[in-house]
Design brief:
Distance between the termini: 76 Å
Structural class: alpha+beta
Strand order of the largest sheet: 7-8-9-10-11-1-2-3-4-5-6-15
CATH class of the largest domain: Mainly Beta
Number of strands: 19
Number of domains: 2
Order of helices and strands: HEEEEEEHEEEEEHEEEEEEEEH
Number of helices: 4
CATH topology of the largest domain: outer membrane lipoprotein receptor (LolB), chain A
Length: 325
């Protein structure tokens, strides 16, 4: 009798293993060789008690053409991450601003809303597992977010047919940090090349005016140990205002807050680094600088003493802070 039970349990376990492997293989096969897709979804970023929500549209076509449109659901602020044959761009159409990057985005990191990167994470993780729920299953894999090493793993939810439903990313304490819910996905849809044209994506209603002053200086809620605000200086500009905050101590850095301006010349600024989401907007990140635009203010953090994780921690505390001094 014992031998019979052992044989039955072994068969069941082998069967479960095959079933899990079949679902994972079905997902990989379904998405790894698609020529194009159009996807709509909702992205939520969790930062302590704050949640930031975006409407997201992703367009992709083979030969490295990508367009990710993100619209902040609170203030309708639109930004676009674009990759075409000329390079990688971040666009803020309402300010007529475009920034060009020498970057391998989206291949430099895991990407919660880029299907190709989700499949790459699945294929590269030998320790991936599949957990079954009532209607859907999720594939748990490691993630690679070089700018935020606190992010450790993700759950890629699919139905029994391998259709992508949502993605959740968790930090080292197993707390959810990001969630992307797929509302609509059309694979192998015909995607026109002009969708990835820089000028076409700058055609948007421009803001009538921007603030000329910084009414409320925002201070970081996070500071590295033994680091403190040493000096604050306000400079009047021809078309606005700039505030320079100098922090000294063991991990010195400079924070610049400047009123955003509308670009009248249609020129594209070339920047070093790569695009990344800074909680409520898309910014530019490199080894010593993070810059972004939020609520009509351009923020820049500069430091040769902060690691990437520390730069992001300071930036996130500025984005989420409502306390002024």
């Amino acid at each position: 009798m014992k031998k019979y039970l052992i044989v039955v349990l072994t068969i069941l376990l082998i069967g479960c293993g095959k079933s899990e492997k079949n679902i994972i293989n079905k997902v990989v096969k379904k998405y790894e060789d698609i020529s194009s897709y159009s996807m709509d979804g909702t992205l939520k970023m969790f930062n302590g008690e704050n949640t930031y929500s975006y409407k997201v549209n992703v367009q992709h076509k083979k030969d490295d053409l990508y367009k990710v449109q993100l619209i902040n659901e609170v203030n309708n602020h639109e930004q676009i991450i674009l990759r075409n044959k000329d390079g990688v761009y971040v666009l803020t159409p309402s300010l007529n601003k475009s920034f060009k990057f020498q970057s391998d985005w989206p291949y430099n990191n895991s990407q919660i809303y880029i299907i190709n990167r989700l499949i790459a994470d699945i294929k590269s993780d030998d320790g991936k597992i599949l957990e079954k729920e009532k209607e859907d299953s999720y594939i748990k894999t490691k993630v690679n977010y070089t700018t935020n090493t606190d992010l450790q793993n993700q759950r890629i939810y699919v139905d029994n047919d391998g259709n992508l439903k949502r993605v959740e990313v968790y930090d080292k304490d197993n707390i959810i940090a990001m969630e992307f819910v797929v509302n609509n996905l059309d694979i192998n849809k015909k995607v026109e090349d002009n969708i990835f044209d820089l000028n076409n994506n700058m055609k948007s209603d421009k803001v009538d005016a921007v603030s000329k002053t910084i009414d409320d200086v925002v201070y970081p809620m996070y500071l590295p140990d033994n680091t403190y605000l040493d000096k604050q200086e306000t400079i009047s500009l021809e078309d606005g205002e700039r505030v320079i905050l100098t922090f000294k101590g063991d991990k010195p850095f400079t924070l610049i807050e400047e009123t955003a301006t509308i670009n009248e010349n249609n020129n594209t600024s070339v920047v070093m680094g790569y695009p990344d989401i800074i909680i409520d907007t898309v910014g530019c990140v490199n080894t010593s600088t993070i810059s972004w635009i939020s609520n009509g203010v351009e923020y820049t953090i500069l430091s040769n003493n902060l690691e990437n994780d520390e730069l992001f921690s300071v930036a996130k505390s500025i984005s989420s802070s409502t306390i002024t001094k």
